[in-house]
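Give me the 3D structure for Glyoxalase/bleomycin resistance protein/dioxygenase.
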Amino acid sequence: MTDAPPTPGIHHVTCIAGDPQRNLDFWVETLGLRLVKRSINQDDPETYHFFFADAEGTPGTSMTFFPWENLRQGKVGSGQVSRTAFRVPEGSLDYWEDRFEEYGVDYDDRVERFGSETQRASDSASGDEPRAETVLPFRDPDGLPVELVAVEIPDDDPTVPWTEFVPESAAIRGFHSVTLLVADPQPTMELLETMGLERSDTEAAQGDTPGDERTRFEAAGTVGRYVDVLPTIEGGRQGHGTVHHVAFQTPTDADQEAMRQAVQSAGLRPTAQIDRHWFRSVYFREHAGILFELATSGPGYTDDEPLDDLGGRLVLPGEFEDRREAIEAALTDVTVPRGESAAAED
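Predicted structure for Glyoxalase/bleomycin resistance protein/dioxygenase (346 residues):
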């Protein structure tokens, strides 16, 4: 543990895509997330940066993409985030399987996690509710591994469902977890504990080398609270269909600086704070090489657009506005999917 305030959980996950229109169509229309910001990669302004989230861009709900069209196909392996999982309401997986059939989404059979007889017995003995999870794995058009996890959504949940394409009864409600693939789990697990996550569960890894274990760490927040660690020595490469980095919430500047110092004390080399316009960021590579980010909660996506208009135009932060004409000329034309509200389907 650390003297820094523990992270509440995941802030956002940023991935690499290919065709930007295909990326928009899938994440907005097929999965029903809201495009809350249409901008550029601030380190490569001739590339889009799309932000998909809940209706208000709540921290812990943003899946973001760099559509690098000319990059090669990636391969998930050691030193990467292997899967990003989202929460959906209990009872909605039938809806999602039907939707995946309708839209031609590549998906697998459901699996159960942390639901062994031993785990159920342990939960019963301790008086806890059984924690078995039903997981629906699938892939986006670039081959990115994604999962939906059916959970009970509490009445006071901080997320706000977006219902333009998917009804509230099935709408994605922010992150559930990320799974980290590492060759040597111990240093990564110690870092997660330094960041304030607590080891909460272990089970045999499904479909992996016999004896491998999935170890779960739990943050203090409601959304994006889990990080799973899996051992593997299989190599990977960055490209289409892989995660670029995972960001963790450090809500205030003071929280972020305290966490930055804690990470530095763990032998890592975090950057100075970088202003990303909608949040402020610190970056570092954890021991296995996975790029981590620490991100503040504010100022948020409504800092430069009204809530009702989020994602409606290309936003160029800071000095990039003066280069709008050249930047727009270099970007591929895209159209954001629009649909009637699906709320009436509930």
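The helical segments are 20-30, 93-103, 117-126, 185-194, 253-265, 324-330. Let me know if you want a second pass.
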